[in-house]
Amino acid sequence: MRASRLCVLVVVALTWGASGGAGGAPESKYEQPEPLRIVEAEGIAPIVDGNVSGARQAAIDRALREAVLRTVGVYVTGSVRVHNHVVLEDRVSTRGAGLAILEEVLEEGRADHVYRVRARVGVRLRPLLRELSSSPAVRRWRVGIVLASSTYYGYVPTAASDAAALLSRHLESLGIDVVDQGAGVTGEEARRLQSASPAQVSDWGRRHGFDVVITGQVSARVAPGLSVPREWLGVDYARCWVRAALRAIRCDTGEVVMADTVAGESDGVPTQQAVHAGMTHTLRRAGRRLSEALLRLPGATSRAMRLTLSGFEGVTDATAFTEALASVPAIRRVEGQVYTGGVLTLQVRVAEEAAASLGAHLENSAALQGFGLRVIRATPERVSASVHAEESTG
Questions:
Q1: Is residue 357 one of the residues assigned to a domain?
Q2: Model pLDDT, residue 247
Q3: Which terminus of the chain, N or C, has fewer Cβ atoms within 10 Å?
Q4: pLDDT tens for residues 147-191?
Q5: pLDDT tens digits, one per residue of 310-347
Q6: Are residues 65 and 155 in the same domain?
Q7: pTM (predicted TM-score)
């Protein structure tokens, strides 16, 4: 599985005028059948000593195993699948009997000395994902935030954008790597997802390339802070009530990772200050609860580290190295780089699980083999290494 990154799609829908906030409240429990991913797979087995029935069963077993392996490929990137092929395949082959269900034999028959079966197989996602989460490979989580926002008794122009930005920043401050993808979703679609079932939300998320979708409604109601005419006070003193009803849903299993409603209030001068304070207070609380759930997902956190690499012949070599580094599973992203006099300094985000052994990850990475990288010194915050100029690609 690739380096962990939480990529966040921030979408806001504004509802003009009054609206009922209770309709968007998430449920606390959902009774759902176990999710299966349906896969068509083929199995072939030799017919030994005329034992056709035994060959048929062996072919079915291989079709089941092939279905599990193909489903693993949905969750594991090519580079890590090759790197950790033995580990993952061993897990699947020894426990595969509990992961796949034979739904239907589509075609079968013998040809020469082999028996061939093509079957429709249901792969049990929850136990499979538990197996993968205990693997040393690192998961990349793509998280979409789709918020429908409404106002009461007055228009709050910044409520929607504040909710999205505050929630994203707070998740990042708690160790969740947030990258705004900026993709667009209509307001009508955001409102539909707000009240959709977990199965509908997870289906939408899979179609849009997300692993987790955070959906719900954020509402802000503003009123005068005191029950006296505003002109008597001489200032725009207001009170704001904010309510955030949110769900976090895994798209692979349809599991509701978190469902909660958080409310808060604040006052201030002018009205915009009351709104901002109320949103900040409420979304911080919601962000803490979301982060507690998201941080339990495998590979959800990252660490900032510095890489210092010497021995480059020129900026072309350094650029090629930076591009190749993005393919290393432990690296989430490069946040900054400086090149001077053959020395390249990079600020990177590293998967928390891989940070302690980042030097080994770099030396053993297939993506960096052409650079002859050798680690000189490694600490929890920094790795110093050299490259061989004659082996650098440029």
A1: yes
A2: 94
A3: C
A4: 887 655 555 655 566 677 778 787 777 666 665 544 456 677 888
A5: 999 888 888 889 888 877 777 877 878 899 999 999 99
A6: no
A7: 0.51
Answer whether residue 1 is part of any domain: no
- Does one domain contain both 267 and 378? no
Domain count, the chain: 3
Note down the domain range covering 204: 6-31+139-294
Q: What is the DSSP string of 131-183?
A: HHHTSSS-PPPEEEEEEEEEEESS--TTHHHHHHHHHHHHHHHTTB-EEE---
**CATH of residue 353:** 3.30.70
**CB proximity list for 237: less than 8 A, separation 6 or greater:** 224, 225, 226, 230, 267, 268, 269
Q: What is the CATH number of the domain that holds 126?
A: 3.30.1660.40
N-terminal to C-terminal alpha carbon distance within the chain: 28
Rounded CA Rg of the chain: 26
**E strand intervals along 25-170:** 36-46, 100-111, 114-124, 142-152
> 104, 42, 46, 97: which is closest to 67 by C-alpha?
42
CATH, residue 143:
3.40.50
Which 3 state secondary structure label does DSSP give 257? strand
Q: Tell me, yes or no, whether 306 and 204 share the same domain.
A: no
Answer for the pair 302, 293: CB distance below 8 angstroms, yes or no: no
- In this structure, the answer to whether residues 317 and 231 fall within a common structural domain is no
- pLDDT higher at 225 or 74: 225
Q: Please say whether the beta carbons of 302 and 173 come within 8 A.
A: no
Q: How far is Cα 216 from Cα 283, in angstroms, rounded to an integer?
A: 13
| pLDDT over threshold 60, residue 246 | yes
* Identity of the amino acid at 96: G
Same domain, 174 and 254: yes
Q: Report which of residues 278 and 375 the model is more confident about.
A: 375
Dihedral pair phi/psi, residue 17, rounded to 5°? 80, -165
pLDDT at 231: 57
- Each residue of 354-390: b (16+ CB within 10 Å) or e? bbeebbebbeebebbebbebebeebeeeebbbbbebe
Residue type, 193: L
User: In whole angstroms, what is the distance from residue 229 CA to residue 42 CA?
Assistant: 77
